Amino acid sequence: MTIRNDWTKEEISEIYNTPLLELIYKAATIHREHQDTAEVQVCTLLSIKTGGCPEDCAYCPQAARYNTGVDVQALMKKEEVLAYAERAKNAGSTRFCMGAAWREVRDNRDFDRVIDMVKGVNELGMEVCCTLGMLSEDQAKKLHDAGLYSYNHNVDTSSEHYADIISTRTYNDRLNTLDNVRKAGISVCSGGIIGLGEKHEDRIGMLHTLATLPQHPGSVPINALVRVKGTPLQDNPKIEIWDMVRMIATARIIMPRSMVRLSAGRTEMSLSEQALCFMAGANSIFTGEKLLTTPNPGFDEDMAMFQLFGLKPREAFKEEKELV
User: Fold this and answer.
1) Which residues are annotated as a binding site?
2) For residue range 3-52, what is the model confidence (pLDDT) as tens digits?
3) Which residues, 6 or more positions from 290, have their beta carbon under 8 angstroms from its beta carbon?
4) How far is Cα 124 from Cα 94, in angstroms, rounded to an integer?
5) What residues act catalytically?
6) Which residue numbers belong to the known binding site for [2Fe-2S] cluster?
7) Fewer CB within 10 A of the end CB, N or C, for the chain?
8) Which HAMAP family match (predicted)?
9) How many angstroms separate the CA atoms of 315 and 288, rounded?
10) Distance (Å, whole) CA 133 – CA 277
C-alpha cells in the first residue's frame, strides 16, 4: 500500500464506517505489510512540571481554573528526572517523554534546564520526547540540537469541534507548532482524544488533519478521555472499546508507517479489550504508574501482558539503525 497524504474526508469516512470485524482484518493486514506486528513501542511519560496551567482545555486536570486536587509542582531537578528515566529504561521502556504544564515554551532558565534534561536522557540511549506546549521554530531547533527525538503536540479533536473544548489557543496554533517541530527535523507525535462529546464526523476530521500533514506523524496517540472530577467533562460517558478499536484501525490503515499509540484510558480496559486494540493496529503504549497526573498500568503488569500476547518491546532508534 502506498503512503498517501491526500486522503479525503469521504475516503476516511468510508474506512471508519466499515463493519468492525472487516475493519480490524483490513487494519491487521496493512499493519503486517508495513511493520513487525509483534513489536510494541514502550514509552514512559513523566510530568516534570505539574499543574497551574493557564489554559482552559476542558479535559485537563492541570488547568489552574479547575479544582481537581492536582498540586502545583515546580520544575523537577535534572537528577530526579534522569533517575526516573534510568528506572524506566531498566524496566523496558525505550522512549522517555517529559511533560510540562506550560501554555508555551519561554526562553528562560527553565527552558535551559529542560535542554539539559534532554541531553541527559539522550545519553542513556533512549528516544527522548517532550510535550511543553507551543514552540517556536528556534526553540524546536534548540531541542533538536540537544538530542530531542520526538515532540508531542496533540490536535485533540477536529477543527470544527475544537472551540467547544479549548478557547485559550487556536487549532492553527497547534498546527503551527507541528510545522515548527517538523522543520527542525524532530519526529512529530500528534493524535487526539475521543470522548470529548464529539460526533463521529469529528473523529474522522481529526484523523483527516493528521493523515494530510506534509508527513504523517511518527506517533499517533489515540486517547480515551479520562474523566477527572473537577473538569467540565467529568460527567461524560465512558468510551466504548469499539470506538477505540475503530479509531485505531482507521489510523493504522491511513497512516501505515506511524506508531499508533494505545494511550490514555488503558486502566479501564480489560486484557481482552487491549488485545483487540493491538489486533487493530496499535503498536505503542505508555507504561508506568502515571500518565502525567492520571493512573496508568505499571511496568510489571504490562510486561506480563506482553508475555501473554507474545509481544516484545520495539528497540530504540530502530528506523535509524535500519538505514545504516
Assistant:
1) 53, 57, 60, 97, 129, 189, 261
2) 999 999 999 999 999 999 999 999 999 999 999 999 999 999 888 887 66
3) 45, 47, 296
4) 10
5) 53, 57, 60, 97, 129, 189, 261
6) 97, 129, 189, 261
7) C
8) BioB
9) 18
10) 28
